[in-house]
Design brief:
- There is one protein chain.
- Strand 1 and strand 2 form a beta hairpin.
- The chain is of the alpha/beta class and about 400 residues long.
- About 50% of the residues are buried.
- The strands form four sheets. The chain has a seven-stranded mixed sheet with strand order 9-8-10-11-12-16-17, sandwiched between helices. A five-stranded parallel sheet has the order 4-3-5-6-7, sandwiched between helices.
- The protein has two domains: about 230 residues, Rossmann fold (3-Layer(aba) Sandwich); about 130 residues, Response regulator (Rossmann fold, 3-Layer(aba) Sandwich), CATH 3.40.50.2300.
- The protein has twelve helices and 17 strands.
Length: about 400
């Protein structure tokens, strides 16, 4: 969604019959008003609970939900319990924008958590910034997300760093010199990460032998893979989402391409192995944490998560958990529960001990933190390989 389309959408949404008051469209009610007078403190969450990346939203929400339960069990924030109001965006950017307007105009939330996909976060961020409501993305890595304004934050690393991580791993750990790229042209996440990987890989002496593309929702990648095969790459960088990556892996193997696939945190889903099967084995991707980390704090989180949801938390769950905890910490430190004061407290976050690492906000409201590289092993298990610091 470009800025012109987003502007039109915002106008339609804001003046929609769903959000009209007796005097017309509601005025901005961010920094100049408080929404903390009720019995609970309302926090909005926008997530892809259904649609093409449904596992992202479910995992993230479970992490957020667990964090909120813990915070409330400890007394809440400034004497009040937190209430999460979740809206499903169906894995669509326009629905993410609609959800953001609803949460602010109808539900009177004082902050918003979401989204995972960068395209959807950008659709949300312009609206949250207009209303001056703090927004924290758990795991949108495209740099443009926080460039929407000073009320927009994230608790994950960004793609320039993630691209360097995978380029460094490819060159130094895997000793690769020739890599092909297969990017999703419809995804801000994929196109951005591809460019950062390409730049870092070539600067370190590697060569990109071919750069092919596809569109989200495609199911046939054999034409692109056949072209790649002719250039004899040693690996293929596929920074897409698990939905397409698993299919790419299967078709690559069918064409005799047995080389590793490389990717980013968009691979992080149990569905990756379901879709790709054995074809995904011996491939690598960057992520936010590893459940093999033996830190007592992390292992305690994993135990509690398994007790609640019956599965080991993935990186999206850990990021959701950290986002909610960072927000609660800022609200606790904030001189008031006015959104402007919460924003200031978020901006001052330094050395917050998260599941995904120590989190400090830089001047652009991006988290400074390390990344891990995981290997897809047998039965879809994600095996820790290394940690790479900024």
């Amino acid at each position: 969604m470009n800025q012109s389309q987003l502007g039109i959408l915002k106008g339609v949404l804001l003046c929609s019959i769903l959000f009209i008051s007796e005097t017309g469209c509601k005025k901005h009610r961010g920094a100049d008003s408080t929404t903390s007078s009720g019995p609970t403190l309302r926090i909005g969450e926008v997530g892809s609970m259904t649609g093409s990346e449904g596992t992202f939203g479910i995992s993230t929400h479970q992490g957020i939900e667990l964090a909120i339960q813990e915070i409330n069990a400890e007394g809440g924030v400034q004497g009040k319990k937190l209430e999460i109001i979740l809206v499903d965006n169906q894995s669509k950017a326009d629905e993410a924008a609609t959800a953001t307007v609803k949460l602010i105009s109808q539900d009177n939330v004082i902050a918003i958590l979401g989204e995972v996909a960068s395209s959807r976060s950008m659709a949300m961020a312009a609206i949250a910034q207009d209303f001056k409501i703090p927004m924290i993305s758990p795991s949108s890595t495209n740099p443009k997300v926080t460039e929407q304004g000073n009320y927009i934050f994230r608790v994950c690393f960004i793609d320039p760093f993630q691209g360097k991580v995978m380029a460094k791993f490819a060159r130094n750990n895997l000793k690769l010199s020739k890599v092909a790229i297969l990017r999703d042209l419809k995804s801000d996440y994929s196109t951005g990460l591809s460019q950062y990987f390409k730049s870092a890989f070539t600067e370190s002496g590697g060569k990109i032998v071919t750069d092919e593309s596809y569109n989200s929702g495609d199911i046939d990648f054999k034409s692109q893979l056949t072209k790649m095969r002719a250039t004899r790459p040693e690996a293929i960088f596929v920074p897409g989402y698990y939905t397409e990556v698993g299919l790419v892996a299967r078709q690559a193997r069918e064409l005799g391409l047995t080389i590793p696939l490389l990717g980013g945190d968009g691979w992080d889903s149990p569905k990756l192995a379901e879709i790709g099967g054995q074809a995904m084995e011996n491939s690598y991707f960057s992520n936010h944490y590893s459940n093999e980390n033996q830190s007592p704090y992390i292992q305690s989180f994993i135990r509690k998560f398994k007790q609640s949801y019956g599965v080991v938390p993935d990186g999206l769950s850990a990021m959701g958990y950290d986002a909610a905890k960072v927000l609660a910490s800022a609200m606790t430190r904030s001189k008031s529960l006015n959104p402007a004061d919460i924003r200031d407290a978020l901006a001052s976050t330094q050395n917050f001990a998260g599941i995904t690492g120590n989190i400090s906000m830089d001047s652009n409201r991006n988290a400074i933190k390390s990344a891990v590289v995981l290997k897809v092993a047998k039965n879809g298990y994600f095996q820790y390989q290394t940690t790479i610091s900024p």
